[in-house]
Amino acid sequence: MAEEKIFLEEGGIKVTNARFITHGKTHSMGGITSVSSYKIEPSKKYPLIVAGIGILLLIFKLWIPGAIFLVGGIAWLLSLKPEYSVVLQSASGSEDALTAKDQAFIDRVVEALNDAIVHRG
Asked: Helix 63-79 to helix 45-59 angle, to the nearest 10 degrees?
């Protein structure tokens, strides 16, 4: 049997020509037909509601609570960051295999998975 070639080993993730190991789950590279990534935008609904409550409180001249809600809602909105996901395609469908906020890390994982698929032949 040929030796397993490692394409990426970083942050608890390991990609070899035979396996893709994520946090507690192992995927066989033999069943993976393609790999992609996509961006998951966070919902802005609740921060906007909080800021809206702050504006309403300011309209009714409730300065302190209005300012707290408005500033809190804006801070919450500005702190939201998108997540990125690795999607594995196989004969049985697609699966989100890994999600992280670091786009560069997800890009490295996708590149390593693609290299492993090409290496596999």
From this structure: 160
Q: What is the pTM of this model?
A: 0.82
For residue 96, the SS3 value is strand
Domain 6-39+82-120 sits in CATH at 2.30.29.30
31-81: per-residue pLDDT in tens? Answer: 899 999 999 999 999 999 999 999 999 999 999 999 999 999 999 999 999
> Among all chains, which residue has been given the structure tokens 């037909």?
33
Alpha-carbon separation of residue 78 from 46, 75, 85 (angstroms): 12, 5, 21
Residues 6+ apart with CB under 8 A from 15: 6, 7, 8, 9, 21, 109, 112, 113, 115, 116
Domains in the chain: boundaries: 6-39+82-120, 45-79
